[in-house]
Fold this protein.
Amino acid sequence: MKTEYQVAIVGAGPAGIAVATALRQAGIEDVVILEREQQAGGVPRHCRHPTFGLQTFYRPMLGSTYVDKILARAGQVEIRTGVTVLAIKPDGELTITDCRGVSTLKAQRVILATGVRETPRHPRLVSGLRPQGVLTAGALQQFVYLRGLQPGKAPVVVGTELVSFSALWTLRNAGVRAVAMIESGGRPVAWRLSALYARLMGVPIHYYSRVTDIAGRDRVESIEVENRQGEKRRIACDSLIFTGRFTGEYTLIRQSHLAQRPDSGCPLTDQFGRCSDAAYFAVGNMLHPADMGDQCYQEGLRVGEAVAHSLQRTLPPARQILPVRHDERIRLTAPARVALIGNPATVTINMRVEQAVSGSVVVRLGEKVLYRKTHRCLPERRILLRNIVLPAEAERDALHISIESAG
């Protein structure tokens, strides 16, 4: 088995596949994708709703169809499934394990595209025993589409993100109607029209509510829901599906030498996807949980081009690295830092907020305003600050992003 490559990509979701595609188009074919699952494709492989492909193929398609098409675009790239990366080390050295055991793989460049995971029950601090019937939306899709099983006859869905309504669709395909949706805020996290879809499905949404307890010993029997007035009531159900609240898959990063956010373990990258070790790049939803598959694919193409330039020594070196700092209403930015390259250049920053807020988003370098535009910002939504013009060099040591509220 080959142990040295020009490029190793960790993760075979849309972002990782796109990086391989861009590398092949640049003439770099000594590439391997390492995927811990038994099939490439990531989350879309398990999705049977037609919300994929608009940005890439200009028409909607099922997730499984979308994966087949982007894999076809990638050509004959080597994909090794059933491979888990145990550790990432300096200069592109990986410790991996597969059916043959533990081994070492080396690459000139390693691209981390490990994606996201949903927040399960325990971090949400929901009390109760551990009966059967408590699962995430990702597990639901595998139950229904890969194993042909029903999760239950009367499920409750926690959350109102896009993936939450995807769970309603999956349940419908399994011949099941949800009993209710539970949302801690006063409106759907997804688009408002999503609530109409739930209404058409006959599923009520309980706003300003949270699940506080799960009853049942062997199987879920009911849940306790508390509203903002502190009033509690029981909802009978036989399964509980936690959806959304995505967080990046940072296990490898936390244990590594790469510079990372201390609160999450998210790797610190510049606008080209470069990590603190020049052998490593990062891309996709691990940096900004969680964008749609098409959006991650497009980002992967851009980062793949940057990796190709890096190998060809045509990627502009960083003359100066500026961290991106922000006020407390902003949860994260990607990139988390920007590289000044000796010439004026533009960068687009992907931003998330903690709570709904409207106003002017302002990017400053010292006293100089680089960007100002009015945005209506909602939690878990992708907010793009496009075409920020960076100077060739700067005396200040950081960009700062703030939101100046309207009124």
Remarks:
- DSSP finds eight helices and 26 strands in the chain.
- The helical segments are 14-25, 54-57, 63-74, 137-146, 162-173, 193-200, 251-254, 293-311.
- The first strand starts at residue 4 and ends at 10.
